[in-house]
Amino acid sequence: RTVEPLEYYRRFLKENCRPDGRELGEFRTTTVNIGKCLCSITTADGSALVKLGNTTVICGVKAELAAPAVDSANKGYIVPNVELPSLCAERFRSGPPGEEAQAASQFIADVIENSQMIVKEDLCIANGKLAWVLYCDIICLDYDGNLLDASVFALLAALKNVQLPLVTINEETGLSEVNLKQKNPLIIRKHPVATSFAVFDDTLLIVDPTAEEEDLATGTVTIVTDEEGRLCSVHKPGGSPLTGAKLQDCITRAITRHKEIKKLIDKVIKSLTPK
Description:
Helix content is about 25%, strand content about 30%. It is α+β, with helices and mostly antiparallel strands. It has one domain: 2-Layer Sandwich (Ribosomal Protein S5, domain 2).
């Protein structure tokens, strides 16, 4: 495993399994904790912690008020940010965001935009005067591959936990008034779920790759779908090309994975609802 890691992996892949005992199409154990389960970030308006095997990601959403942009007077803002601190893996260093963190932040921004999970018009309080800004901080606590799947899941779970207070503008003073006693859930239009694959030897596809598998792979691809089976995004940062048939296979598996994640998140949210 140390001297010839790729050959070591190939021996397992020939038998349609992986060194950790999973089949090629098998995901690691996935868990999610939402909101009140997370005492650590009580200051957030919505929060979630997702574990995908050893990969652990936490997402906190903070809502603030701001004036909308001049050219988007009826829209609010969503600002995602992915952090990969040095504590999550030896490969990352302290300091400004590295290339991988920046790429992940851009990926999350594209998913929000392409899936229309939140329509920015819904964040507008008063046209041209006041809107909500959602700061979505996604922090990796333990990195063992497949950051994108865990990040999208944590973001969705945290957003579903957000409750926004009622805000009105006093016509006499022109100032905003916040009613903390009356809160409404954030309107989430779509529920995107990411499913990532690693490509081995240009032909073999394995789902939910670990960090070691990502390093040995000849390429990776991430498929994002919504609850209607609609394709929201295909993220393929270089590497081995995929045939149309292979890509279709990835999309089909991603749609199945979406149903599993949706069932999991609904179950957790139901358990948090007061009876």
